[in-house]
Design a protein that fits this description.
This protein folds into two domains: 5-226, Alpha-Beta Complex (Spore Coat Polysaccharide Biosynthesis Protein SpsA, Chain A); 256-440, UDP N-Acetylglucosamine Acyltransferase, domain 1. The protein is built from twelve helices and 39 strands. The protein is elongated and about 105 Å long. The structure holds uridine-diphosphate-N-acetylglucosamine and calcium ion. Residues 228, 230 line the site of calcium ion.
Length: 498
């Protein structure tokens, strides 16, 4: 391989056009703060050192970078005042004092850069020259222009604000990404002068120096890749492109994605073959999905571990939870943190769980809350069952042992245990342990009062009877069977058409 590599990532700017109280590089692309992309790229390329130059909200950005990559894998240099890109790289000089290899310079706000492009750049620079990335955007506005002589050799880079009329018409632009000998770059930086319209120290002047003292080569990259994120429109575009890129990588590995533009997924997500993802599915964090699963429309999985051949029906939310092989969840189920479904579990519509384990083959098919519970294998939890796990001060556990049957509309007042194979009758409030094999019932005895309802109805109808005169008028259309039918027909017809 080539010489050792160090990377400087420029991210001190505020990003005024984001109109945000948050630093630009902390805005998210495919669920991850933008700054993570160049840092991750540098590390994947084997960069021995990664220096982030931070200014605006340096502490917040540092926190994000260090939590993701570890404090020891990234160095932070502070640029208190933003005096230009050259000045920014100067701030990393101390950290790089003993680095004699190549120096790669990236921006914190270009998340779409690919490893392939940067590897090409590094390979080019390996010859001991300064290599830079160029692009030809539809409109070069705002970019530094690449000025070449008649022989086609790059002579300098001129910023839009310093351009002559002829220079402004140049289409080839500087992407702002460089790689070259670290000693040369850092040495040239010490000679920079702010003799330009912005009074800044321009990193681009190092390129001009290299044309005299070294050699310069350019590599051309697609605009989409080098496009910086400057405002929220750019952010949405970068986000969509990154998600589609991730979705395509999964599709190539055997995942069916029914609507790639509407799949929201993050870079760390893992998905097995023959799994099918519906529209509007959101896969966050370190979610792992096994093989042959079906994840239907609108499902949101955060840090979820899903086994093989699992079917998650529409609009379920699963967070920090595990779903075992061949289980079925939803529609509209909410598995909150700490839920564990072992294999072949069925959790149906409007079931919420939290810190609850379901043993193999357990079922809770309708309308239940199961919190802080241990549900054994083959347990059937009837519709409307509630674990009363909180007394206003503390949480308590409910244990339902293997094979127990919990009748509909049961409240389990924790701490409480329902023994193995026990039956709880519908409508029971269980506040004492139920022994294995027993029947628990707290229902009060039912009373049937013969004829009561009929008698009551007659009484009420007699009271509601209108006065005789009004009754005659009201009775008229009622007595005419045909009129009533016709009127009903008239009302109905337009409705069916609409
Ligand atoms: C720079 C290049 C320009 C190129 C463009 C590509 C210079 C002089 N110009 O433009 O040729 O076409 O990038 O996008 O280099 N930053 C700092 N500290 C500073 C200034 C900038 O950290 O003092 C960071 C910003 O946060 C940003 C990056 O450097 O991530 C680029 O800064 P920006 O102001 O967008 O670049 P320009 O100078 O406009
Ligand atoms: Ca920019």
């Amino acid at each position: 391989m080539s010489a050792p590599l160090a990377t400087v990532i420029l991210a001190a700017g505020l990003g005024t056009r984001m109109k945000s109280s948050r630093a630009k590089v902390l805005h998210r692309v495919a669920g991850r703060p933008m700054i993570e992309y160049p840092v991750g790229l540098a590390r994947n390329l084997g960069s021995e050192r990664v220096v982030c130059v931070l200014g605006h909200q340096a502490d917040a950005v540092r926190f994000v970078v260090e939590s993701r990559f570890g404090a020891r894998s990234v160095d932070i240099a502070i640029q208190a005042e933003q005096k230009g890109t050259g000045h920014a790289v100067q701030q990393a000089a101390d950290v790089l004092a003993d680095h004699n290899g190549l120096l790669l310079i990236l921006y914190g706000d270009t998340p779409l850069l690919t490893q392939t492009t940067i590897q090409r750049l590094i390979d080019t620079a390996s010859a001991g020259i300064l290599a830079l990335v160029t692009c030809t955007p539809p409109s070069p506005k705002g970019y530094g222009r690449i000025v070449r002589n008649e022989a086609g050799k790059l002579t300098r880079i001129v910023e839009e604000k310093d351009c002559s009329d002829t220079e402004r018409r140049i289409g080839e632009c500087n992407a702002g990404i460089y790689c070259g000998p670290a000693r040369f770059i850092l040495e040239s930086l010490t000679h920079l002068q702010p003799n330009n319209s912005q009074g800044e120290l321009y990193l681009t002047d190092v390129v001009e120096a290299a044309t005299h003292e070294l050699a310069v080569a350019t590599i051309d990259a697609p605009v989409e890749e080098v496009m910086g994120v400057n405002d929220r429109v750019d952010l949405a575009r970068a986000d969509r492109m990154m998600r589609v890129r991730l979705a395509e990588a999964h599709m190539r590995e055997g995942v069916t994605v029914r609507d790639p533009e509407r799949l929201y997924l993050e870079p760390d997500v893992k998905i097995g073959r023959d799994t099918e993802l519906g529209p509007g599915v959101e896969l966050r964090g370190k979610t792992v999905i096994g093989e042959g699963c079906r994840i239907d429309q609108g499902v949101v999985l955060s840090d979820a571990i899903i086994g093989n051949r699992v079917h998650i029906k529409p609009y379920c939310v699963v967070s920090d939870s595990t779903v075992g092989d061949e289980s079925q969840v939803g529609p509209w189920a909410h598995l909150r943190p700490g839920t564990v479904l072992e294999a072949e579990v069925h959790v149906g519509n409007f079931v919420e769980s939290k810190k609850t384990r379901f043993g193999r083959g357990a079922k809770a098919n309708h309308l239940s809350y199961l919190g802080d519970a241990d549900v054994g294998a083959k347990v059937n939890v009837g519709c409307g069952t509630i674990t009363c796990n909180y007394d206003g001060y503390a949480k308590y556990r409910t244990v339902i042992e293997d094979g127990a049957f919990i009748g509909s509309d049961t409240q389990l007042v924790a701490p409480v245990t329902v023994g193995k194979g026990a039956v709880v009758g519908a409508g029971t409030t269980v506040y004492q342990n139920v022994p294995a094999g027993a029947l628990a019932l707290t229902r009060s005895k039912q009373i049937n009062v013969a004829g009561y309802a009929d008698k009551k109805r007659k009484e009420m109808e007699a009271k509601a009877k209108p006065a005789p005169a009004k009754a005659a008028a009201a009775a008229k259309p009622k007595s005419n069977h045909k009129t009533k039918k016709a009127a009903a027909g008239k009302r109905e017809r337009p409705r069916t058409r609409a």
